[in-house]
From TrEMBL:
UniProt region (Disordered), positions on chain: 172-199
Composition bias, Polar residues: 184-199
Source taxon at top rank: Eukaryota
Protein name per the record: Endonuclease-reverse transcriptase
């Protein structure tokens, strides 16, 4: 390689340095934006559930709310008020032949009502079930982790899928809680001794005490009245 060629390449490298730095900065900013979108999407769906299998017989949103409320009351014994629901609607296009039952997205005002329903979702009857409202990419990730989840459980490990992450702990968690160690009782020598008055010398009679006090008072100096 000639000297002139080396000089040209060095000049090109020098010009590419700021471009390379700018590309790295853009990649870093892109990762930050992706992370923000990830958490915004997660927070947006935190109070949502999707209900599958409920017969599509409603003619308005109001009627749909009544159907959902009745289902939760009958199967789960959970009372849902109108004020508890923020948004509710069917997902997907209407099936004119009424063969497919479109899922229902329910967005609650607060998370505790949604959590109460999800804890009792296994009590739903008639092939109706509820699930979390996950984004599409999270659903795909959970499907990929399903095989690993089953594999870990076959090994006897405790494994669950938390959102889009697989959590594995060796062995099954014990049901017996560790008892709190009771504090050791102090030895006899460490216990404070109460002052006891057991001897006769230490015992005082209340009447004797009063008699002694009366004797200690000064006597009257006036002469007594002579007897008649």
């Amino acid at each position: 390689m000639s000297k002139q060629t080396k000089e040209i390449l060095a000049q090109l490298d020098e010009k590419l340095v700021p471009l390379t730095r700018e590309i790295d900065e853009l990649r870093f900013e892109n990762e930050i934006l992706k992370e923000k979108i990830y958490y915004l999407e997660k927070h947006k769906r935190a109070n949502n559930i999707i209900l599958y299998g409920l017969h599509e017989s409603e003619d308005s949103i109001k009627t749909l709310i009544q159907l959902v409320k009745k289902k939760f009351k009958d199967d789960l014994n959970i009372i849902v008020e109108d004020r508890d629901i923020n948004t509710i609607y069917r997902l997907g296009k209407i099936d004119k032949q009424k063969e497919k039952r479109r899922p229902i997205l329910i967005s609650f005002v607060n998370n505790w009502k949604k959590s109460d329903i999800m804890k009792n979702k296994n009590k739903l009857n008639n092939n109706i079930y509820a699930s979390e409202d996950y984004p599409k990419d999270v659903l795909n990730k959970r499907r990929e982790l399903q095989s690993k989840l089953e594999e870990e459980r076959k090994k006897g490990n405790y494994a669950i899928i938390n959102y889009d992450r697989l959590i594995v702990k060796e062995g099954k968690p014990g049901n017996v809680k560790r008892k709190r160690d009771s504090p050791a009782s102090p030895s006899i020598s460490e216990q404070p001794c109460k002052q006891q008055f057991t001897t006769k010398a230490n015992r005082r009679n209340a009447f004797d005490l009063m008699r002694n006090r009366s004797n200690s008072f000064p006597t009257d100096n006036h002469p007594s009245k002579p007897e008649a």
